[in-house]
Amino acid sequence: MDDLKELIRIITKNKVSKIEIIGQNSSRRSKVQELYHGIASGQFKTDEEAAYFFYGTSSDSQTYKKLKYRLRKRLIDTIFFIDVNQPSFTDAQRAYYSCHKEWAAINLLIRRGGKGKLFTIAEQLLKKAIEFEITEIVVEISRLLRTIYSNVKLNHSKYKEYDALVDIYSDILILELKAEKYNTALTYKIGQSRASRIDLEEEAIRYSNELQDKVLKNNSYRFHIAAFRVLALRYQVVNDYKGLLNVCKKAIHFFEHKEGLSFPNAIFLFQYRLVACLTQLNRFEEGEQEALKCLALPIEGGHNWFAAYYTYLVLLFRSQQYSKALITCMTAMHHSTFKKQTTGTKELFSVLDAYLQYFIAIDVIDKKAIDPHYVYTTFKLNRFLNGLPEFSKDKRGMNIHILIIQVLFLLQQGKHDIVIDRVETLNMYCSRYLKKDDTFRSNCFIKMLLQLPIAGFHRAGVERKAEKFFKKLQSVPIEIAEQSTDVEIVPYERLWQYVLDSLGTKFYFHERYIRK
């Protein structure tokens, strides 16, 4: 049923309210329509529920499979009726969807024997595709018109015109495909972490050097967005944030000054990275200004809008503007579309909220001084832990926050026995997952936390035993660490100070740590 849910989500989101097509009698509501509305409304969450409702059978029955097939086919037909005249669509996006839809129709009609006016419509569509730089459509229409004017409607000048367009735009398309190939190759290898840093760096440099000169000579939007991504990855793989910052600025300048077309989504892509770079470089004042620009680019309440808010929040955390971070986080999480976001997005904000609730608990944030209308609710640690199904599986990334937040709250609440159990889990986690360079700082911090029960939660003893790991942590500052900004939202040096402040001057030894 997941495929149907995805199709229905897209169609409903884009304001296609009907699933009938021209020529059908829609006076009565069919089973296909009932299945559509049942899935859209949440009445049917599984195939088993839907199959039993309609036929009293299991989802393996042929009658239910045929019903699903008819709905899937109808939904795909309905995609052509998506309303692109919505505020969420840019002019370039509207042109992209309409050109592909019109070209599919014209191409099929001409190949089914259509003539005359259809050729003129194809020529008009070609002008639109050229204006909005939809290269693959330009090539396809030019190829068809070249064939038509070479043997159907003999016209030498038009034949030469479209033959030249095929040559010009085929070269552009090849460049776009090459830049896209390099971008996806690097993105895949970074995501899989299968290549060594040296191999990735060499490959990224080779790709970026090949594309660098073409960036200056080619004006294609799609080539530039892929090429600038490759250039950005060239610096990202070696954590060269100054180099990455420079690429982002060049990309933003290109898309802001490109004549005739507006590309807010492309600008957002690099503006978003620019904010992360400035955060990593501790250029917080400049970063905050750029973050506010980033927030103004996407449609409010959409995925990119929440992504911009998250990046801004990480900057506020790093710059210790916790009170402002609390208000900003509340603004995002209380938005009417927050519940509709992906599980990953909601979990990111849940982690930020948990840290903020911890800061309230230890009086780093004075909730009364922020907003008199702020309703404070007691933080429920178990509810937080149960609400992060995706991060719990992310053993080398965001899962680290779950483990650390548990220890922070338990220390603040003086629950040392439970802390000891969690620390042992941390020890296993550290030995299994935190071994490579990109987790070095996390590894050091966990080693520091492991000293808590060993030193009997005595502040001076913990400081003494953790000192060598603290020095290792300081040897790799967060500004140059090989890790994502998501991994260390609050610098570990600062968190460690909060840990120490939670400790007392009395020893608390568990029987497992008493020397015999």
Chart the SSEs and their pairings.
Elements: H1 2-13, H2 31-41, H3 47-55, H4 62-78, H5 91-111, H6 117-131, H7 135-151, H8 156-192, H9 197-217, H10 221-236, H11 241-256, H12 264-280, H13 284-295, H14 303-318, H15 322-333, H16 343-361, H17 381-386, H18 399-412, H19 416-433, H20 440-449, H21 451-454, H22 459-475, H23 492-501
Strand tally:
0
The biggest sheet, with number of strands, parallel, antiparallel or mixed sense and barrel status, is: none
Question: Overall 3D geometry?
Answer: globular
- The secondary-structure element order is HHHHHHHHHHHHHHHHHHHHHHH
DSSP summary: helix tally: 23
Residues in β-strands, percent: under 5%
Q: Mean of the pLDDT scores?
A: 82
Q: Flag low-confidence runs.
A: 21-25
Cα end-to-end separation: 60 Å
**Oligomeric status:** single chain
Rg to the nearest angstrom? 29 Å
**Class by alpha and beta content:** mainly alpha
Helix content: 55-70%
